[in-house]
Structure formats: structure tokens, C-alpha cells
Amino acid sequence: MDDDEPHEVDASAPDRGEAVADGGAEGADEVALDPWGSSTVDDYRKLFEEFGIEEFDEVLEEVPHPHYLMRRGVIFGHRDYRRIAAAMREDEPFAALSGFMPTGDPHVGHKLVFDELIWHQERGGDVYGLIADLEAHAARGLSWEEIDEHTESYLLSLLALGFDPEEGTLYRQSTNREVQDLAFELGTKANFSELAAIYDFDGETEVSYMQSVVTQMADILYPQLVEPRPTVIPVGPDQDPHMRLARDLAARMRYFKVTEAYASFELDDAERPLVARAYEALASGDDDAETDVRCTDAAAWLEAELPDSPDSLDLPESPDSPDTLDSPDSLDSRPLAGAVEKLEAAGKEPLRPRVRFFDRNATPEAFEALIEAVAGEKRVYEGHVDSFELDREEAEALAREVEVNHGGYGFVAPSSIYHRFMTGLTGGKMSSSVPASHISLLDDPSEGYDKVTAATTGGRETAELQRELGGEADECPVYELYAYLLAGDDDEFAAEVYEECVTGQRLCGDCKEQAAELMEAFLADHQEKREEARELLADLDLALESDRR
Ligand code: TRP
Ligand code: SF4
User: Fold this and answer.
1) 137 touches ligand 1 (CB under 6 Å)
2) What CATH number labels 435-538?
3) Edge-to-edge, what's the strand order for the sheet holding 95-100?
4) What does pLDDT average to over the chain?
5) Does the structure show a pLDDT above 90 at 245?
6) What is the number of the ligand closest to the CA of 35?
7) 45-255+414-419 against 435-538: fold identical
8) In CATH, what is the architecture of 45-255+414-419?
9) What is the pTM of this model?
10) Given ligand 1 and candidates 130, 172, 416, which is best to mutate, with the most ligand atoms within 8 Å of its CB?
């Protein structure tokens, strides 16, 4: 399971993913995020810089009673989690969903995700847990027999940990017709070149494998078939490529795209803030006087005031425009030159801030209805309508309302949260082919005990040195077990272990003994609850045996 342990379980299963996974020419210190490969994440900071994942710490304060995995930095990153935090605070509807490939036994890495789902359910979310059996079959080559066996096991653990199946939804990809239909629809908005670029697919990639990608896209958007609502997908960072694609597809399905504009022509995301600055500089001072700022004035201002290098400008990464794949050329175009050129071409046209609704996929009736619904001063063009009175937020809400009323989905871009991967108990990566490196939720409690006592630590060579220098809790898989699992909600206890370790008051022998006992008790308790959950599972309308072969 390497670093993507929460998702990949049985590394001994034939991994057809490998061929595509390792095909990329990644540089040695480049971070590769690969949903089916063995992506290593040794520098989480790069995920922020290279992929635009945001730091979880920055939203932490907005989250009511954050989960201990959030408080301890195990959940380290997110996309658009603010929406979810706001929904929780304001008691607005939101959903959470994650999926599990039934390729082996559930283990302590999966428990993180199970706990995240359950926590969102306790916070009032409509929560979905799904078994990614189509993906396991297509991408991992598992037989339906193997898949059935593991499916039951994942569900038992999820229920045993507290998932409420009456409040939430559990499903298998293979029997969810709505998901499959949505996958088909979403497939109309993605082409092969794009999948090839994202996942390193090539001419040898099986069609079903590609189908499992659009199926996952459908999983991610499935909660919004009820109604458009913020949805969070808790996953490991290896799944981020899927999140980026899902956010793009959600936008591409929309009837309308709302942007901000300053004149009749289009600006790209890099040019827009430049023109905004010119407008603010020139129009400032007298709001009432309606002083017309002409496009040519703004062009002249930009050339005079701004340095030629785009690097020296503080350009936002356009966080609310998820469809970057739509306009790859905006990335290397030179914003200043582009903006000036467009402004000059527009000549004496006055600059006026406005919100613009583009017709992306709307039916003619829906576009008409939108035009009708835009209140106040507006201007109607061929494929878009500009409003001079609505603000961005009002415009977004209106666009969604019209879309939904005319049969569209109105998807909200899905959010995600990312957790750190656990280190293997034997040091290095957790690997499902090395049983000693991880603890399965099905391990006999005494076996769990033994694995913990045998684990590598961040301890020093001798007790003497340890007392003198302190242990290296940050490098210690045993400390991770405390922080991720054994200390539960008890921050004080986790902090105490850490402090005692790094100050040399705690020695590894005793520390492991304590952890081993806690692990043994956890496994015994969990397995008892799994047995109790059997009845609950049997009552659910969920095919535990597949008709497929
Ligand atoms: N691809 C995920 C994995 O590797 C499983 C999965 C399928 C999933 N659909 C999902 C995860 C939707 C999150 C959301 O395990
Ligand atoms: Fe790890 Fe505990 Fe040893 Fe510290 S004392 S290095 S936490 S095993």
C-alpha cells in the first residue's frame, strides 16, 4: 500500500495500474500524485506549492469543534473546505463521501477515513461510503469473488466505528445505476487526451480502467443529485488528481459560467486583476461623478504604472475558477501585454465592472429565463449576458437557481480534505505485502500487540542517550500510532507522550508496551463491534454478493 495506504490494500494483487503509474518521467524531487501508483509524499509543502492544495491550518479556526485529526495536523490540506465549515456553522445542508477499493483487509489507514466520514455525519452531514468495486476490478484486476469478500469487511468496520446507515448511504459502484448513468454523462465532458495527461494513460490503457475514472467522478458528485450542496471528499493526497478533474467536470456541466468583466471583451484570469487595478486607480475618488474611464486610458495607465515582469505582480491564483484545464493557454500568456492589447483594441469603450453569465450548456429556454431573471441594468450579447447590478455571489446563486429549475444539476465544486499517510511500523512505507508494517483491523489483538512491540521507534541507541537527548517522536511510527489512533480525542495524553519522549523522560520499551496494550484493547473492542454490526449490515439493502463474474 506504500504511501497511498488508505486506498491500496493488497499489493500482492496484480496491479495493472503500475504500467501507467510508473510511466511518467518524474524528476527525483518532484512529487508525483498517482492514484494507483506508489506516490511518495516526503515533502507535504510541495503539495501546496505545486498542486494548489491549501493548508488545513488556515481553515482550522473556522471549523466548529475540529476533529483530533484536524487539530493534530494529520489532516494537513484541503480544497474549498471553507464551504463545508460554513455549512456546519450555519446549519446548512452539506454532504461527505469517500470510497474504498475492496482489495484487501481494512487497516488502520482506512480507519482515518472511516472516522472522518463518521465525524461529518455527527456534524449533520449527509454522508456516503462507497465500495469502489468497479475500480478494484478494472484497475487492480481483482475477481468478483475476492471483491465480495472484502466488501463486507470494509462495511463492517465502517459500521463498527459508528457510521449510521439510517442517516447515511452505503453503496457499491457496481449496483448503483444512478452513479453509472451520471458517469456516462460526465464522460461527455472529458476526452482521452485529458485523461492521458492527468493519469499517464496511453494506448494500452484498458477502456474499463478509464471507465472507473469517470465512475469515481460520478461518485464524487453523486450526493448532489439530491440538490446542489457543498460536499467534502476525505482522501489521501494521492487522490488529488481525481479531485481536480472532478472539480473541472462539475464546472463543465454547468449551464452558465459566471465571471467578472470590465468591458464587452473577455479577460483571462491573469489579465483581470490588472484591469481591475487600472480601473480602481482611474475611477477612484469620485464615485458620483460617473467619470468615464476609457479602455485606452486603462491601457496607458497599465503601461506607465506596472513593471513589465508579471512575476513582480501579486496575482491571485484564481481560486474560484476550477476549470483551469479549460484554458491551459492562460498559463503562459503574458498578462500585461495581453490586457493592454485588448484594452487598446476596445478604444473609447468605457470600462465598467460587471458580472458576466456565459452560456455554457444551457438550453435556449434556460438562457432566455436567465436573461429574464437578471434584475436591473443588463446587456445581452450573443452567448452571454452582463449584469451591472448583481454582485458575484448573487449572480452565482441566480445562475444555479435557473439551471436547476431547467433540469440542470447546478453542481457546487466538490471540496476535499487530505490526511497524511502513516509510516510503516517497520520504518519506511506501510506496505500491505509486509504484514508487520501495518496493522489490519482484522489482526488478532495479540498479533496487533506483537506488531507494536516489534515496531521501529524514534528512540536513541541506549537508554542513557535517550535520557540525555530525548527521543525523536516526529520520526517515530509508535508516536504516530498514539497521535493518529491510540490517544483518540485526548489531546493532553498525546501531548504528554510527545513531551515525555522528546525530553527523555519516556523510554521506548515502556512506551511501546503502553501502545501495544492500547492497540490490543482497540482491536478486541473493534472486532467485537464488527460482529455486532453484522446484523445491521444484513438489514441494509445492499448486495453483498455480486451477480457479476
Ligand atoms: N479511487 C479510490 C481509491 O483508490 C476509491 C474511490 C472511488 C473514491 N470512488 C471514490 C475515493 C470517491 C473518494 C471518492 O481507493
Ligand atoms: Fe517513539 Fe515512544 Fe520511543 Fe518516543 S519513547 S521514540 S514516542 S517509542
Assistant:
1) no
2) 1.10.240.10
3) 54-55, 75-79, 415-419, 231-235, 95-100, 126-131, 169-172
4) 89
5) yes
6) 1
7) no
8) 3-Layer(aba) Sandwich (3.40)
9) 0.88
10) 130
